Amino acid sequence: MDATQLLIAFGLVLLAVAALLGFVQERHRDRPEQFAGWRVVHAGGTAGAVQLLALAAIWPRISDQGMASGLLAAAMISVTYAFFFGPLATVLGQPRLARAVNIVGAVVAVPAYLALPLALL
Fold it and tell me: Is the dihedral of CA 40, 21, 83, 7 positive or negative?
């Protein structure tokens, strides 16, 4: 599977899961704090999925599809999922796990997002 296909596949899976978690969000409408937590998971997952799908749409134009391109795509997927699973762990009552996932996501995100514009060169 090439980088574009990976971005599409992981984007679609995340979009489906985030959309379904919108139903969980609705179930907590009477508890504002939990509703807000689920809203972050639902909206953040949806935004992350759209980011992956948008990257897939332009990926062939910004990269040479070599090994570096694949690594950058894998990093973008990993970061997007980390920033989805971190808030999900928080709302599920696992703050230590959430913190660890968010820290790992941030460590990968900084070089990945800095490298993304370099893919144009």
Answer: negative
Alpha carbon distance 75, 105 (integer Å): 9
The answer to whether 120 and 62 are in contact (CB under 8 A) is: yes
Q: Kindly state the DSSP code that residue 119 receives in the 8-state scheme.
A: G
Residue 77 backbone zone (phi > 0: left; psi -120 to 50: alpha; other: beta):
alpha
66: which DSSP letter? S
Give the integer Cα–Cα distance in Å for 63 and 121.
8
Nearest residue to 48 (alpha-carbon basis) of 109, 115, 120: 109
N- to C-terminal Cα separation, the chain: 24
**CA 116, CA 109: separation in Å to the nearest integer?**
10
Does the pTM surpass 0.85? The reply is: yes
Can you give the pLDDT of all 121 residues of the chain as single tens digits? 789 999 999 999 999 999 999 888 888 888 888 889 999 999 999 999 999 999 999 998 887 767 778 899 999 999 999 999 999 999 999 999 999 999 999 999 999 999 888 877 7
